[in-house]
Automatic annotation (TrEMBL):
UniProt keyword list: Amino-acid biosynthesis, Lyase, Pyridoxal phosphate, Threonine biosynthesis
Species assigned in the record: Paenibacillus oceani
Annotated Tryptophan synthase beta chain-like PALP domain residues: 24-317
Name of this protein: Threonine synthase
Superkingdom assignment: Bacteria
Biological or metabolic pathway of the protein: Amino-acid biosynthesis; L-threonine biosynthesis; L-threonine from L-aspartate: step 5/5
Cofactor(s) listed in the protein's UniProt record: pyridoxal 5'-phosphate
Amino acid sequence: MRYMGLLQTYKEYLPVTDNTPMLTLHEGNTPLVRAEKLSDELNLDIYFKYEGLNPTGSFKDRGMVMAVAKAMEEGSRTIMCASTGNTSAAAAAYAARGNLNCIVLIPNNNIALGKLAQAIIYGAKVIAIEGNFDRALEIVREITAKHPITLVNSVNPYRLEGQKTAAFEVCDQLGQAPDYLAIPVGNAGNISAYWKGFKEYNAKGKSSSLPVMIGFEAEGAMAIVKGEPILNPETVATAIRIGNPASWDLAVNAAKESGGQINYVTDDEILHAYRTIASKEGIFAEPASAASIAGVMKLHKEGYFKGGEKVVCVLTGHGLKDPNIAIKSVGGDLLVVQDTEEAVMDAIRKLEGA
Ligand code: F0G
């Protein structure tokens, strides 16, 4: 049967009524790809939930299709969000699809190029503020409380409802929940949504077990790890450059209830994992996504795993979102040579020797 998107596929599990428009860009149904080399190297059974293959290139499409469909059902004309980039791309796309206006607030100079391009081309009104994501979210909350505009950040409960479907897919793809679910943590909505999804699927008898949830913040933005908000968060992984996560308590609860933890990884660890999964596994995910695999590498080094466990790493966004980081992190200028066979052969030898 033709796949018709999340609202259709999971309507019994979602707040879908007879009046909910069946909005879709055929989001969800993303592959679970086994990490062949890393599994051998770390003596684990590692899988990537490749969320970069959603319609706008990130997991945000799952929550946004639900939130925008409900906004339409409720007669809203305009949606608004703060974003480090992916939420705004998803909001802009689904607003275009559903004929709504979309306003997005982004931190100036701190969103990846691809994400900015998406918000603009989908036709959102894009406003960059001289402040960070946390400040942008405060402003969006203030404005949407006073005006007839629907807030579509993950504090909108429909967002987490949509996002929990990724946990359902992981269980169906593996036949049951994995032993561990490793995930980057920014505003802390996604880890909360996955945990909700795993618990609901387990309660319905669709998976016999629950995973241990292990979430990873970036070191320069590790508010939950430190136990206090961070005023000026900094990390190469701009998607999770967040100092005061909105779903803080839910994320702590997911870690606690599942016997897991919220930990952190450094920018160097993130970039190492980012390059490794691209060059060894053929999977290109954005830096924030690589926090999940960087975290598994770190815990492995510390002797956290017994060996042989099934670990699913959520790769939240596509690598093409942030082409500048890819080029910068590998380094070196492009080799330009004359258009002759000898020049190209010389260049090949030079690169092989490098
Ligand atoms: N990975 C990517 C690629 C993201 O874009 C985000 C969040 C996260 C991980 C963290 O997920 O916030 O649910 O803990 N991006 C948001 C945005 C903040 O505006 O696009 P979270």
